[in-house]
Amino acid sequence: MEDADQQVFKFKFWKLTIVLNAIIIFVALAIGLYFKAPQPYGPVVALVLILVDIPLIWYFRKDYYRTKAWLDIHASPPEKKEDDARKTED
Asked: What is the DSSP string of 19-38?
């Protein structure tokens, strides 16, 4: 993979990591606040957090598959074992 492609991949990976962490944090907060917040507010806050998570999950999944397709195109092809065998013989 070329240096420019590596920089693009680092940004794409970084973005996916941040979105995935946000999804995990929102789900954990929804579960925790459902039980810990005062009764009339707990379920409402949990529902709001889950509703915020749904578009994030959709965006993450879409961008994950887009990044995976991009990586399949830009990843360097694996070297054949025959080439490796010739290099070790020389």
From this structure: HHHHHHHHHHHHHHHHHHS-
Q: How confident is the model at residue 22 (pLDDT cuts 50, 70, 90)?
A: very high
Running DSSP on this structure, what letter comes out for residue 76?
Answer: P
Radius of gyration of the chain (CA): 22
What would the two tokens of residue 28 be? 């954990």
Helix (H, G, I), strand (E, B) or coil at 12: helix
- Go through the chain and tell me how many residues it has: 90
Q: How far apart are CA 83 and CA 90, in angstroms?
A: 11
Q: What is the DSSP string of 56-69?
A: HHHHHHHHHHHHHH
Q: To which residue do tokens 């940004």 refer?
A: 11
* Domain ranges within the chain, ordered by starting residue: 3-89
Give tens-digit pLDDT for 59-80: 999 999 999 998 888 887 666 5
Q: What pTM does this model have?
A: 0.76
